[in-house]
Amino acid sequence: MTDKNIYAVYFSPTGGTKKYVLAAAAMLGEKYKQIDLTDFDKRRKTYTFCENDLVIIGTPVYFGRVAQIENGIFDRLKGMGTKAILFSVYGNRDYDDALLELKQITSENGFKTIGAAALIAPHSFCEKAGFGRPNGKDLSALADFMGKIKLKLTDEQALDKEVFIKGHYPFKPYGKIPFYPTADGKCDKCRICFQICPANAINAANPRNTDPDKCISCMACVKACPQKARGFHSVKAKIIFKMFERKLLKTNKEAEFFL
Ligand SMILES: Cc1cc2nc3c(=O)[nH]c(=O)nc-3n(C[C@H](O)[C@H](O)[C@H](O)COP(=O)(O)O)c2cc1C
Ligand code: SF4
Ligand code: SF4
Q1: Can you list the domains of the chain with their CATH numbers?
Q2: Atom 6, ligand 3: residue with shortest CA distance
Q3: What is the mean pLDDT, run by run of 10 residues, along the chain of 259 residues?
């Protein structure tokens, strides 16, 4: 491969997107660098890539769109016609317009999409949906796709072609759920949640509370809490998520690839 550097770039509060991006980067068979934009401070830096770089960019799907957070996720990635492989990772409902939106955001920032994929991981709100994914079948489909990417990288004509991606523009409106995780009496103030919250929505002095204006309901804090103290503690939230889970478990979505 003639590319200068390979980068694995992701926003991944509960780790599903990260798994796919790192697996794909490893499948290229060369050294790569990671940029974890889940981290609040890392998202505030600017990253500039050159024409010969190859960047794998992954983000979860929130409300059928690219996940949104104050100050944006990818706004500080600057490409110069840099080749990009885009991943939208979703929780077995649908990815709707998210992958098309990711292509638009990254194109505006100087990246050229050479391939893209919609992939399935456990749903942030109900892990039974998408449980165990990526599984063997997902990884073998990803390996096949990355094999095709490697071939494409040697074919200038193929690289010049526009990659068609499913989705609609104008994009569907971004949603909001009125629930934000808080901690109950099991909290021992270890502050792990404060350290990992991508939105800076947890107060260091009082980590049981959550700032609803900042929280994106990503569930990173719930997954990371060693005391299992964090979660949605209202009865209403529990009923809604149970019903949602039943709906999600009716189908098993499969990965889709675009070249
Ligand atoms: C606020 C929010 C909205 C979500 N919206 C969708 C959705 O529209 N479709 C879907 O299938 N999954 C949806 N999910 C699930 C995530 O896309 C899925 O769990 C993804 O794997 C999370 O990525 P991560 O593990 O890298 O954080 C949503 C999750 C959150 C937190
Ligand atoms: S991770 Fe859990 S136990 Fe630790 S401060 Fe946060 S809520 Fe409390
Ligand atoms: S407080 Fe909100 S934004 Fe922060 S980790 Fe928890 S769910 Fe995510």
Answers
A1: 6-171 (3.40.50.360), 182-233 (3.30.70.20)
A2: 221
A3: 81 98 96 97 96 97 97 94 98 97 98 98 93 97 98 96 97 93 96 97 95 96 98 91 92 96
The minimum-distance atom of ligand 1 relative to the CA of 63 is 8
pLDDT in tens, 192-240: 999 999 999 999 999 999 999 999 999 999 999 999 999 998 999 989 9
Q: Could you tell me if the CB of 134 is within 6 A of ligand 1?
A: no
CA of 71 to the centre of ligand 3 (A): 16
What is the chain's length?
Answer: 259
| Ligand 1 atom nearest 218 alpha carbon | 31
Name residues contacting ligand 2 (CB within 6 A): 183, 187-193, 207, 225, 227, 229-230
pTM over 0.85: yes
